[in-house]
Design brief:
binds NADP nicotinamide-adenine-dinucleotide phosphate, single chain, TIM Barrel, 8-stranded parallel β-sheet
Amino acid sequence: MQTVKIGTTTLPAVGIGTWHIGDDPVKRPAEVQAIRSAIDHGARVIDTAEMYGMGRTEEVVKEAIEDYMRDQLYIIDKVLPENASHHLLERSLDQSLRRVGTDYFDLYLLHWRGTVPLAETVTELERMVAKGKIRSWGVSNFDVADLEELWRLPAGQHCVANEDLYNLDERGIEFDLLPLMKKHALPLIAYSPLAQADTISGRLSSDPLLQELATNHQVSIYQIMLAWTLRHGGVLTIPKAGNPTHAIANVEAGDISFTPDELDALAKHFPKPTSKQPLATI
Ligand SMILES: NC(=O)c1ccc[n+]([C@@H]2O[C@H](COP(=O)([O-])OP(=O)(O)OC[C@H]3O[C@@H](n4cnc5c(N)ncnc54)[C@H](OP(=O)(O)O)[C@@H]3O)[C@@H](O)[C@H]2O)c1
């Protein structure tokens, strides 16, 4: 399994996404099992948020992880922008901690930028680190200008990761954002790495090159898509799987490596942008 360093922690590079987990009560047992199967096969990182199901997803995470040692896991949670203020952040964090059933998060992200000044949010995040409620903090849906603004703040350099949309359909961040993050050794957390099961463009699951690579590696095209997000290092990829078989396949995709020829073929077939793109989000 490939690894990624976030802050001072080295982690398996395939994590567990949780958006929409818990939405359908009928699916809940399989979803709990999917999270457990991913952990049992080597995943350590769980990505969740107060936004997901308005807290319901965090409660499913709690159920899934109750039999695991807390320090075996690396839990990422996110605060909504409207709660990222002096008055509300700690309350939001406490509620998330209670729903997940833990007394700290390894990483706490500002989910996206809102109207609360960044300096106020960073001050609160730093205060939560000092209180031991979070081990580190980061951001999500930040573009180049957002990171530059962040880094100008006194504690802005303490940010340990930026979580953005990244998959074969959405390579916009490769033009300027990813190079900037590489320069600052800031890892990317790649969200929707499977293009939401190819529901964005709909062109990936029937793509002949992806099918050929999947056949050659004896894996699925989704595993190829996932491995592609990890090809240059410095990336944690967080597929969501409510199906335990998918969850295991995703962890196993962390072992796939491509030859230079395969990477060339993918780069030609899915070209990266040659100009600045607006930051894509979901
Ligand atoms: N920070 C942000 O703003 C933000 C935004 C979006 C997402 N995220 C995070 O990123 C995570 C992943 O993104 P996402 O949930 O949008 O989409 P995604 O991971 O790209 O795709 C999830 C879909 O792919 C399917 N799938 C998973 N593994 C598969 C496999 N091996 N083979 C075939 N299909 C497979 C899932 O089906 P089953 O469920 O049936 O297995 C589900 O329909 C989220 O869950 C969330 O934690 C963060």
